[in-house]
Amino acid sequence: MYKDDGRDDSYGGSGSYRNSYDGYNDHNDNHGSGGNSGTGGSARESATVRLLSCATKRKPYARVEVTNSSSVDGRFVVTVTFRDARDLKIASKREEAAVPADGKTIVKVPVPRRAPIAKVDRCDLSPKAPPAQ
Where does the record place Gly residues bias (predicted)? Predict the structure, then answer.
């Protein structure tokens, strides 16, 4: 349920990151996906996430900034989907991030071992990370 708290509702940048090594520019990318479904009785807030960089051969992980706007420390689940140049899903990976109250942290989300890192062209993530269970 939406409740207007009077604050500015800016969510920062998130969504997709394309590796630019092939010069391919797709203006019809599907940026970000899905929403956040509530869990019964949980009063904890989700964290905001922002993709800093996608995985490459030299750095086989995505870097994600996780922001906790709550007044209490929290652990959050960040999910990155790795896609190829044709926008096909190669793999998804989840990582937990411990974030201090009203703070930020950067988490590295590695490409799963069996996924072909050379084919990763872009990374997608949702703009929110739910609290860890």
Answer: 32-41
